[in-house]
Amino acid sequence: MGYPLDLDEYDEQRLAGELELRQGRRSQGLCDYCGREPDTNPCKFPERHRGALAIREQDMAALAEVGEELKRARAKFPAMHSGHEGWAAIKEELDELWDHIRSWKGEAYGAEARKEAIQVAAMGVRFASDICPIDQDNDEQS
Ligand SMILES: [Zn+2]
Question: How far is the CA of 20 from the centre of ligand 1 (A)?
């Protein structure tokens, strides 16, 4: 998206119309540049789409579920020992999610698909913390 004319090519009436359009969008809580909701993917002006950049309530709920799944998995299985083992654990969960996606018939994804997505995320977290933990020394320097 962009403007069809440079600023100096606008006559006063078009410029006034543009200002009115922007003010109208802002008063409706929309991005004055692209006219979309603040929680939609950012346009050229990301600061006007802060909603899309923020962690939302539904994200927090999903992250809490990932935490619960992580605890359940840690109680059941020892730490991942290698990249290959971690990859296999993630792939197993990803394949189970794929089964739900392959059998999709246009309905909303249900609790079972959600559970698989949460398990994929939990295995990703295990991979990160078991296989490639944060380097404490480098972390303190940054
Ligand atoms: Zn925008």
Answer: 16
32 C-alpha to center of ligand 1: Å? 7
The encoded tokens of residue 22 equal 């922007």
- Tallying the residues shown for the chain, one arrives at 142
Alpha carbon of 4 to ligand 1 centroid (Å): 17
Structure tokens of 28?
């409706």
Rounded to whole angstroms, the Cα distance separating 138 from 142 reads 7
Of 72, 77, 112, residue with least CA distance to 96:
112
Domain boundaries, the chain: 7-51, 57-131
Identify which of 66, 67, 30 has the alpha carbon closest to the alpha carbon of residue 45: 30
34-49: pLDDT as tens digits: 999 988 888 999 888 8
Nearest alpha-carbon partner for 26 in 16, 35, 17, 18: 35
Quote the ligand 1 centre to 60 CA distance (angstroms). Answer: 25
- Tell me the CA–centroid distance for residue 3 and ligand 1, in Å: 13
pTM above 0.85, yes or no: no
Q: How far is the CA of 47 from the centre of ligand 1 (A)?
A: 9
